[in-house]
Design goal:
The chain has about 500 residues and is an alpha+beta fold. It folds into 3 domains: about 110 residues, no CATH class; about 110 residues, 2-Layer Sandwich (Uridine Diphospho-n-acetylenolpyruvylglucosamine Reductase, domain 3); about 150 residues, 3-Layer(aba) Sandwich (Vanillyl-alcohol Oxidase, Chain A, domain 3), CATH 3.40.462. The strands form 5 sheets. The chain has a 7-stranded antiparallel β-sheet. The chain has a 5-stranded antiparallel β-sheet with strand order 6-7-11-9-10. Strands 1-2-3 form a 3-stranded antiparallel β-sheet. A hairpin with a 5-residue loop joins strand 9 and strand 10. Helix 9 crosses helix 12 and helix 12 runs antiparallel to helix 13. The longest helix has 21 residues. The protein is globular and about 60 Å long. It binds flavin-adenine dinucleotide (FAD). The site of flavin-adenine dinucleotide has 34 residues, from strand 4, helix 5 and strand 11. Flavin-adenine dinucleotide binds next to strand 4, helix 5 and strand 11.
């Protein structure tokens, strides 16, 4: 066992970073799941690398005392060939300053996975290990869903994961996870078997239904409040080709689709079927894209007929591999983007009209006046049973059928910083309008427990975690009594 030369203070973010490195080394080498205080070269030794052309230094940054290292090269004492080759840590600072953990980096809230302090990128945690006998897969916390699907799908298997390429597994899972499989199998956290976590005190633990079940509860929806997750083990499920399609509607035809959409949402019972609609305003035009998905090479006769025959809809539908469908929704790059959620208990033609109107209203206003780029309102249609597949979790705080609602996910993208406040205000106003419209229809959404992966920064924690919040805070006091994780961005218990 390496010997300790210098101890980094317990509450230093660096402590956690080193702990991650060491934990992975132990887990990869000897199969230990706990270890005494980590050992490393220490601050002086690491500091001495700064400014030198150390052969292991992969990149230096021009501002501040920043460097990017491969962990095996610097952090262990003695350096050992046993350290995981895949592990890479980025350190973008060297003080007890705020730090950020990023998985895929897709959180749209400022500072959730970015920082001017120390940046812990999980990108080096990129291994996949499929346990065929157990129908599970270990997924490194730095991977994106594409990696997982590209690995499993050609073999005829899948996980309950993302719906477009590029999104990270870590934040997606730690926030809940809405998937094309959610009607059948639940949220991604409902298929989570275990996690490996480095706690703020440097202890490396597993959390599962049987091991540290309280921590497991907290991680399922609780993001980075309890430490850094290095590995997720998810259930693996068979995957055939799927049937998918889009019906694209120009502005004048959108209203004509709403009866068919509502009828589908009200009557569908087949959990293999899902429906989303993206209302989008961009470059002076409003369009709607109805996205149809069926989890088999072809849907039952008649299931989507009314949607496929919406007047003037441009239909593209085919049987395809799941990976092909995933590629259809490439995320777009925009310098500035925020999102928020309007909760809905039931879609009605009037409410869908209102969503379309909001898209056009704010899209044209912000495009004209505030450097707007594109404006999406994504209507999610799930079965009312979609919360019913899992056991208790940080989010959703209640799985009672009466608590079920659907998120309308609203994302605004624009270019110039000078317009941040105007766009922010517009988004808030639009969410308020849609909530008011739903409430005017008698929908009980005042206490809807909002999906933390999609809501805007500043949303009170009670609005997401509801009755679970006291329990989560008590759990935080157990696992992070020194409040180390308060130095990171994200939802802070
Ligand atoms: C284009 C796009 C499509 C999306 N599609 C869906 C969808 O279909 N379904 C859905 O449910 N959501 C979807 N989302 C939302 C998505 O789930 C969240 O943005 C999610 O947090 C992204 O995960 P990430 O790892 O990429 O994020 P990051 O920004 O890297 O992380 C998000 C949060 O998790 C924390 N975190 C990351 N890694 C770790 C770790 N290893 N340990 C502890 N904490 C960590 C971060 O600190 C941060 O607070 C989508 C978002 C985008 C932008």
């Amino acid at each position: 066992m390496p010997s300790s030369k210098l101890r980094i203070p317990y509450d230093s973010p660096l402590f956690i970073i080193f702990a991650v490195v060491t934990a992975v080394w132990y887990s990869n080498s000897a199969g230990f799941h706990t270890f005494p205080r980590l050992t490393h070269h220490g601050e002086d030794a690491l500091g001495s690398y700064i400014g030198q052309e150390h052969p292991h230094l992969r990149r230096t940054f021009t501002t501040g005392r920043c460097l990017v290292l491969r962990s095996r090269d610097v952090l262990l004492d003695p350096p050992t060939p046993m350290i995981s080759q895949e592990l890479e840590i980025q350190i973008l600072g060297w003080t007890r300053t705020p730090f950020a953990i990023s998985g895929g980096g897709h959180a749209l809230n400022p500072g959730f996975s970015s920082t001017t302090g120390i940046h812990v990128s999980m990108s080096g945690f990129d291994t996949l290990e499929w346990h065929k006998d157990e129908n599970t897969i270990d997924i490194g916390a730095g991977l994106r869903w594409d990696h997982v699907f590209d690995y499993l799908n050609p073999e005829g298997y899948t996980v309950v994961g993302g719906r477009v390429r590029g999104v990270g597994v870590a934040g997606f899972i730690l926030g809940g996870g809405l998937s094309f499989k959610t009607n059948q199998l639940g949220l991604t956290i409902d298929t989570l078997k275990s996690c490996e976590v480095v706690l703020p005190n440097g202890t490396f633990v597993r959390a599962s239904h049987d091991e540290n079940p309280d921590l497991f509860f907290g991680l399922k929806g609780g993001f980075n409040n309890f430490g850094i997750v290095t590995k997720f083990t998810l259930g693996v499920y068979p995957q055939t080709d799927i049937w998918g399609g889009t019906v694209i509607l120009a502005e004048k035809d959108i209203g004509g689709a709403h009866d068919a959409v509502v009828k589908f949402a009200d009557t569908v019972t087949d959990p293999k079927a899902t429906l989303n609609i993206i209302y989008e305003y961009a470059e002076g035009e409003l369009n709607a894209i109805v996205i149809l998905f069926y989890d088999a090479p072809s849907p039952p006769p008649g299931l989507f007929d009314e949607l496929l025959s919406i007047p003037n809809g441009k239909v593209t539908a085919a049987s395809m591999s799941f990976a092909t469908l995933l590629s259809a929704g490439q995320p777009r790059n925009t310098p500035r983007r925020i999102q928020d959620v309007a909760p809905v208990q039931k879609y009605t033609p009037k409410l869908l009209d209102s969503i379309a109107n909001e898209t056009k209203h704010w899209g044209s206003f912000l495009e004209k006046n505030h450097s707007g780029h594109f404006f999406d309102y994504v209507v999610e249609v799930f079965l009312p049973t979609y919360y019913s597949h899992g056991t208790e979790s940080a989010w959703p705080p209640s799985r009672d059928p009466a608590s079920v609602h659907y998120p309308v996910n609203i994302a605004f993208a624009w270019y110039e910083k000078a317009h941040d406040q105007a766009v922010w205000d517009a988004l808030k106003a639009s969410v308020a309008k849609l909530r008011a419209d739903a409430e005017a229809e008698g929908q009980r959404i005042e206490n809807a427990e909002l999906y933390p992966n999609l809501v805007i920064e500043g949303t009170p924690l009670e609005r997401m975690y509801g009755k679970n919040l006291p329990r989560l805070r008590a759990l935080r006091d157990v696992y992070d009594p020194e409040r180390v994780m308060d130095l990171t961005g994200g939802w802070r218990f």
